[in-house]
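Entry 12.
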Amino acid sequence: MEGTKLAEPDISKLEQSAKELRRKILNVIFQAGSGHPGGSLSAADILTALYFGGILQYDSNNPADPKRDRFILSKGHASALMYCVLAKAGYFPEEKLKDYRKIGSELFLSGHPHPKTPGVEIASGSLGQGLSVGHGIALAARVDKLDYNVYVVLGDGEIQEGQIWEAAMSAVKFNSNNLIAIIDNNKVAQDNVTKDLKDLEPLEDKWNAFGWDTHRIDGHSMEEVMNVLRLPLHASKPRMIIADTIKGKGVSFMEGQTAWHGVAPSEDDLQKALKELE
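Predicted 3D structure (tokens):
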């Protein structure tokens, strides 16, 4: 299968891939005239590690392979990131990205992930649902006697929703150790910094108290991201990775700014951003 585990990851190659991914994301959003650059850029290192660091087991020529690991982008508004990753992974040609957010897109490259798109497991973007669905899929592996893992990337804003914590309790009760959740903790929501909406800290203590195997990392250190993703799974607990990130990472005038949550760059902004990402 594609995504075969590497003995030792090439960190510098993965870092370069993440930078190229950020450039592609900005171009795709610019061409569409809409999208969510901030949260797409913040999670780029995480998805690069999952898909191209030998973590996620997948076959882009057979997206429905029952042995595949499952990936859910719960923060579905970062669809530009998802589609750029899937194109690079070989699920569909990169030239199809020109149809992003266009009505009638052949591959359903809509503003939020659609399960008719090759490589997308569920519709997401109605925030707060991804962890519950991910847990259900993790339980299905046990029922079907299949050996796969389920990875769910969450936004820090969406974990303010109650359904997240219901899923947190359920996953521990059922000892779902094949469920790995990652919080893209960029600390900026749609129109405010997250702590001024509801302060999530102490985040590690919360997840530990709910019974998860909890780890906290720098979500932009490819070495730290790869190290935590390569850890052996806990014998009985689901895993929570809190990845501290920066909204708009890599582009100075976008970093940490609510204004870049859901706005496409102008041509001038795009050229400035691409220059910074050279």
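Annotation: The mean pLDDT is 95. The chain has one domain: 11-276.
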